[in-house]
Task: structure prediction
Amino acid sequence: MAPHAENADAFAREMDHPRKDIEKVDEPQLKAEFRTAAQVPVGLKTAFSDYEQKDAAAQSG
Result:
């Protein structure tokens, strides 16, 4: 795994905290903010993974 993808994985693990915090707050707007914050690293991880797969396919093809 490339270093940038490893960093994205670590960031995704770290951002699991907002997902857990969703249940700890009562304010709907704050819950929405935590949900949004939790989705950002998931998107980054997907983007880096897709990039690596395309890069590997280009190098082998």
